[in-house]
Amino acid sequence: MKTNLGKKTILYPMPVLMVGTYDQKGKPDLMAAAWGGIFNDGMVCLCLDRGHKTVTNLKERKAFTVAVADEKNVVACDYVGIVSAYEVQDKVAKAGLTAVKSANVDAPVIEELPLTLECELVSYDDNTEQAVGNIVNVLADDSILTDGKVDPAKLGAITYDPVHHTYIKLGQVVGKAFSDGKKLK
Amino acid sequence: MKTNLGKKTILYPMPVLMVGTYDQKGKPDLMAAAWGGIFNDGMVCLCLDRGHKTVTNLKERKAFTVAVADEKNVVACDYVGIVSAYEVQDKVAKAGLTAVKSANVDAPVIEELPLTLECELVSYDDNTEQAVGNIVNVLADDSILTDGKVDPAKLGAITYDPVHHTYIKLGQVVGKAFSDGKKLK
Questions:
Q1: Residue A52 pLDDT more than 90?
Q2: Which chain A residues have a beta carbon less than 8 Å from that of B174?
Q3: In chain A, N or C terminus with fewer CB closer than 10 Å?
């Protein structure tokens, strides 16, 4: 039996995207976003309410970073998601995080977060509130690499549960893509 | 130390979205998509190559469903991701899946998949290949509900690892959103 739950904004898994920007004075900002993902080959999209300082920043600096929230930094990532840079000065530092200038785009890289997409802004639509970014580089901490590749077991990425408002970490490998389905061919 | 991996289309977690449509004769189609997510409140977006039959279908029927791939159906979900409806007749049936007409939109619901977003097409952009859908109802199998709410532990949603091309299931709860961060306030 299936039950109609009505119109809801739920999906599994939802990412926990940590969006880093600089304001016009060069102060770093960081916020969390669960609405977004890969837009197209080498591009990301994010739904960012135009009221966020992040939106003012990325429209001005034409760049942003997207880091993956991980188990190790769950408290800091949640913190920057619940306070606004309009209210808290030095929000990134208060979270215990360290912002360093990206070598590739005009946006900050958060040292403690192990995987970061460095993006140039392609567009921000004031009506739909969708930001689109071109990934120019993926920056990975050596601690999450195995044979030079990102290792999900080391990364410890978390996902947002929109129903229970919890963070869930990724678990076991349960299948092989472009392969398991061949059994049915 | 951090390493530049260059321009790559990677993100964690990426969803495994099962997109259901009808063609003009009413034949159901189903494909897998990892590029997409929530677009805005009550809306989804998907990057769907215009060469897919799904794109022809959703432009014609103005509707689609998005089901969440789960551990139980990993073989079937992978199968529909590797064969085209242009090549395989009755792709859904060959996957061992059952398509039934949605009560809410002009698109099929896959009986075996426990969580489905029923969507009306808002737009498909031929240049960016982004499909946007308005979620009109979320349909959940009673087997994944606890106290009337979706229970991620019962759902068994999988995520796509774009580096190793594996499917990873969601694991343990490791934090509480809008709460853990209060410790730093």
A1: yes
A2: 71, 74, 158, 167-169
A3: N
